[in-house]
Amino acid sequence: MNKALTLVSSILLTCNFSYGYASGQDCELVDVNATLQTIIVSPRLQLGTIDLTVISADEINNSVALFEQSGGLIGRIIFSDTEAGFSLLNHKIVFEKGSSLHTENDQAQVVGLCDDGRLHVIESIKTIAWGNKFFKRAYLAEGDELVADGCLDPSLGGTSNFSMTGQICLK
Asked: Is the pTM of this model over 0.70?
């Protein structure tokens, strides 16, 4: 289970956001679509790949890709309660042209089994601790979160895939 939660970071990242300004926030909300696959390399470490597109809408509601790149990620489990099926993770994602972001205290919870027998995991990401280049001005507004939902293979060397939805702000 501990290994399974390590791969929880192996999230297929798909975030859907609406263009505009968050209530009480001075930011632009954006749509994000991504896929992510990870592999567990140790009980507390996972490595993976991500394909990410950030989409905004112009005045005529046409979609405009603001960011479209592939990258790699490192996920570290910083706390795990295997009996409860719960883990806290930090993730660092680096994209091919140098943009990066770091999330902290992502909460992963095993909620059951997937049809293929892998663990069904839901992960909540509430903090973008820092970013650079494109993500320098990205954050999650208070009360917002990204929610990853997918199937996790907890074995050493096991691969996992996730999808994720939520909202982020660009200042």
From this structure: yes
